[in-house]
């Protein structure tokens, strides 16, 4: 029990060092790492865990943050399917050789996992609690409190409707696509190139490879090259199969999500043959999947991480890595700031320029794929760069060592082909006004 700001008793510590909004991978990471340094951290999550979330395929560079979080023993003991590689199937149905992460980096970090997010996120949140984080579920942050330009805390609403003000030295926005502070300060730039949508469902008894290929993510280009399918093997004999395509192509004038999904499967023999005879294990999920980023990561007393800072198209499964990595960088900046008594925007957001460069590298690889880049063709032409391409695929993004792939990539451009537009070129206001990342759940999961 704690004394609340009005002197009454409350089960919420209303004067922690740091308050975190959201208990997804970003929130769990930042809070655990700050608590490890002995600071008081209170985290608020509006949902009751376990709850559904998309984002099921991890990439190897998550290893290093999971290690700091002391999550590795839990991951190793879990039922999650082990992932050793990623494989690409082109529009003609031709399958590339797997990009085995271990061939590139012979270290245990090269094996990662396909997770069921409800289970993974709950493990991460429990782990945060074990490290001393005071985490409250079914507690919504209504707003961030400010004194002038400086964030001073949050106003929350508990499950029973009680409202409380919680004051802290720093506020971390890890609210995912709700992006509380990005919306409040209108900091969002919608990506000018990546305007996609996704529809997916789950299959039991669909095709699974064997041995070290069993857990591979397979990225299958659709025959008309409008989009691609993810094929992600999970435990419980389940495979997650989703189609990603341009928003207008998937969602305008084509009927229900089920209808569009089935039409896309029918057009794609590489998917059809894999799910033949399998039983659908869920309804149809869909999301408008526009990529975006904020123009700044922090202000005085506040910082944004994970999807609350930016979202990148899911082609290479980078979302959880970016959530973990930004959580780690922000945690270090906050702990250093507390020690120096400096919780300014400059201190809390000092990590963001280098982090943005890393996202830019992954984004460039995403845009190149949508503009016709073929992994198979590239490594055939430049076999000495196979390892560097694999570095990008594992999420080793925060180094200029990998930039040696761009020039050879450009040398394969057909005549007149343009570089991808920079993310901050933005989107015309009238188009931006109609954008919103919405998640459509199947009936069985709607509250
Ligand atoms: C179609 C699709 C496929 C994807 N596939 C992959 C993949 O294969 N691999 C991968 O790594 N990533 C993938 N991603 C991305 C991944 O889902 C996200 O990047 C990741 O979940 C971000 O984590 P986060 O902690 O920032 O946000 P979230 O996981 O969304 O967590 C935010 C939390 O904040 C809570 N919250 C929101 N508002 C409030 C409030 N006001 N008060 C309290 N709590 C609040 C929410 O309930 C939520 O639990 C995919 C995304 C999409 C859309």
Descriptive report:
- This protein has 447 residues and is α+β, with helices and mostly antiparallel strands.
- The chain has three domains: 2-80 and 116-187 and 295-350, FAD/NAD(P)-binding domain, CATH 3.50.50.60; 191-290 and 430-445, D-Amino Acid Oxidase, Chain A, domain 2 (2-Layer Sandwich), CATH 3.30.9.100; 371-424, no CATH class.
- Helix content is 32%, strand content 25%.
- It has helices at 25-36, 62-68, 72-77, 101-104, 117-130, 180-184, 247-251, 257-267, 269-275, 319-340, 345-348, 352-370, 375-381, 386-394, 406-411, 429-432, and strands spanning 2-3, 9-10, 18-21, 41-44, 81-83, 85-89, 99-100, 112-114, 134-136, 140-147, 150-157, 163-167, 170-173, 188-204, 217-221, 228-233, 238-246, 279-280, 285-294, 298-299, 302-304, 310-311, 439-440.
- Strands 6, 7, 14, 15, 16, 17, 18, 19, 22 and 23 form a ten-stranded mixed sheet that branches.
- The two termini are 31 Å apart.
- Flavin-adenine dinucleotide binds at residues 21-27, 44-47, 53-58, 140-141, 174-178, 180, 198, 287, 289, 306-308, 314, 317-321, 323.
